[in-house]
Amino acid sequence: MKKYRLLIGFLLFLALPAMAQKRKASQLTPEQQAHKAKLEKMIANTQCIMFIDSMVVDKKHFLQYYKLSPEIGRVARYQDFFHTQQQPNAYVYVNELGTRCYLSQECPDSTIELFSCENVDNRWTRPTTLKGINDDGDFRHINYPFMMGDGQTLYFAADGEDGLGGYDIYVTRYDAEENLFLRPANIGMPFNSEANDYMYVIDEYANLGWFATDRNQPDDKVCIYIFEPSQTRQKYSATGLTPEDIATYARIDRIADTWSDETAHVAALQRLRELTNHKGERKPIKQFSFVVNDEVTYTRHTDFKAPDNAKRYQQLVTLNNRYQRLLSTLERARDYYATANNEERDELRPEILASEQKQHELYVQIHTLEKTIRNAENLYLTKNK
Fold first, then answer.
1. What is the pLDDT of residues 306-323, one digit of tens each?
2. Which of 164, 192, 246, 352 has the most crowded CB, counting CB atoms within 10 A?
3. How open is the CA angle 63-101-140, to the nearest 5 degrees?
4. CA-closest candidate to residue 68, choices 90, 92, 96, 91
5. Do the beta carbons of residue 72 and residue 96 sit within 8 Å?
6. Tens-digit pLDDT profile for residues 207-262
7. In whole angstroms, what is the distance from residue 214 CA to residue 268 CA?
């Protein structure tokens, strides 16, 4: 009988960790359980991203470490851009032509909202609120805006109901027909965490991305990550990794673990060095060749005469860069597909098909925009002979 009591006692001892874990889970509030489920879902959907480099810098001056191509515009502190002591926590993005800016401002109720304004006769117009971004009031602070070269895709950081904690990075697109921005989407991991993550910038000329985070940092420091933007969203869950392995990528434990393509990593490092070597100086805008008609060819942005054509051409350059990167990505995917096993091909096939569809869409957009620019310019030249 004593032997059986000892056996039962030993089995209970083995069960104690599981029972303690169960009690711990049951002690979570509904809000904590919902947050835990959200966190697990985001980890499972972590995006495959190659991180090129990282650096820990002073939080107050983190923007000076963003070495960006002048063609994408620039990001700045509100105080530095507008030469004022007001709005110490606000930030600004201004496009490459200097004609439009997106900015954050702290409101009287201590919330922070996003606005835009135009440069008219070398003076900035009164800021107007960006419609659609916070119609439901889910965000309290919306900050760190960055507009892509297409003039429609806006990234920002906000603390909101569906975030992981602190600032999370979101993306939205402008709906020209409705004259508002669509409901923002959280861009997920590895970019977001339970700390503050913000100032997400994509340099489409250098094919490099940047964002800042204070995860695992003291109060006065942030870590800046430089990464290679991905044309298609691939998840680590599709690679056969365990949830524990995926979690290490979600946390960005080691950026070296993301260097699966050494050739691409070396090329990205070289592009980063080229940007860094400019030491913050704004290089002159490159000349180009855009045929308007048999007699007229433009080589500078200032050559465009029709309203908004300079902006349209900037969008055209962005689309062409995106198209070329997508072609390169497709070529690498097809090469890998040729030597992949059946399981890997099953995973790659929908990605390749989706990329081919995107390639066709970009091709149509490029040629439609070229035609729009050319027709508008010829109409203007005809009317103003």
1. 988 888 887 888 888 778
2. 192
3. 75
4. 96
5. yes
6. 899 999 999 999 999 999 999 998 777 888 777 788 999 999 999 999 999 998 89
7. 24
Q: For residue 126, what are its two tokens?
A: 């009164």
Is residue 117 within 8 A of residue 101, CB to CB? The reply is yes
Give the three-state DSSP class for 216. coil
CA separation for the pair 274, 68 (Å, rounded): 10
> Under DSSP, is residue 180 helix (H, G, I), strand (E, B) or coil?
strand
Residue whose C-alpha is closest to residue 133's, from 92, 90, 178, 77: 178
- C-beta separation of 249 from 239 below 8 A: no
**How far is residue 376's CA from residue 370's CA, in Å, rounded to a whole number?**
10
For 34-76, write each residue's pLDDT tens digit. 888 889 999 999 999 999 999 999 999 999 999 998 888 999 9
Q: What whole-number distance in Å separates Cα of residue 172 and Cα of residue 277?
A: 33
pTM metric for this prediction: 0.73
**Beta strands at 153-160 and 168-175: parallel, antiparallel or unpaired:** antiparallel
Q: What angle do CA 278, 282, 285 make, to 5 degrees?
A: 115
Tokens of 293: 């008609």
DSSP E strands in 107-251: the ranges are: 112-120, 123-124, 128-129, 139-147, 153-160, 168-175, 180-181, 185-186, 197-203, 208-213, 221-228
Structure tokens at 157: 């950081």
Helix boundaries (H) for the chain: 2-26, 30-44, 78-82, 243-251, 262-276, 309-339, 342-383
Q: Which residues contact 180 (CB under 8 A, 6 or more apart)?
A: 131, 132, 174
Quick one: which of 77, 65, 69, 60 has its CA closest to 226? 65
| Cα gap 375→368, rounded to integer Å | 11
Sequence-ordered list of residues with C-beta below 8 angstroms from that of 293, at least 6 positions apart, any chain: 374, 378, 381
Bridge partners of 1?
none
SS3 of 286, please?
coil
